[in-house]
Design brief:
Layout: H1 8-11, H2 35-46, E1 56-59, E2 62-66, H3 67-79, H4 82-88, H5 93-107, E3 112-115, E4 123-126, H6 128-155
Helix pairs in contact: 3-4, 4-5
Length: 158
């Protein structure tokens, strides 16, 4: 984000836009001498844009997998526990369990192998399908972001 130069007219420009808010730019009226200045001002406006996108996978028009479910599955893989994975992101165990069951139903594939508690405690591990889903989603996400970033820079050069 551009640094604030301290000038009164630049304080508003340094604030990020809110959803639906329009960018208001006050440019000098073009004159023979001022056209270059107008172009320079516009370039400064264009430099303020950044690129971001959110991706997910859908089935039958419904979102079924994205960053959140991918994150919880990765945490289960690392911790060996759905309860611990949920706690790390301040999600209740029951909410995490409903998420996993919903995903398994929508994908028609098991994602976790659950071990019942006991003396050594229970736990969870990912199924091969869950591991493949995570790997494919992350690979797709990375490739898509790189392609979109290239397109962004083609349309908004710096």
């Amino acid at each position: 984000m551009p640094t604030n130069t301290g000038k009164a007219e630049n304080k508003e420009a340094a604030k990020p836009l809110k959803h639906g808010e329009k960018l208001a730019v006050s440019l000098p009226a073009p004159t023979a001498r001022g056209k270059e200045q107008v172009a320079m001002e516009w370039n400064r406006v264009m430099e303020k844009f950044n690129f971001n996108c959110k991706m997910w996978l859908e089935l039958n028009g419904e979102k079924v997998f994205g960053d959140g479910p991918c994150d919880i599955l990765q945490r289960v893989e690392r911790t060996g526990s759905l309860r611990q994975a949920a706690a790390e992101i301040n999600m209740s165990y029951s909410q995490a369990w409903r998420l996993i069951r919903s995903l398994e139903k929508e994908l028609d594939a098991p994602l976790l192998i659950k071990r019942a508690g006991g003396e050594r405690g229970g736990g969870s591990q990912l199924t091969p399908q869950a591991g493949e889903l995570i790997q494919s989603y992350q690979s797709f996400r990375k490739a898509a972001r790189l392609a979109l970033r290239q397109i962004f820079h083609e349309h908004f050069p710096r």
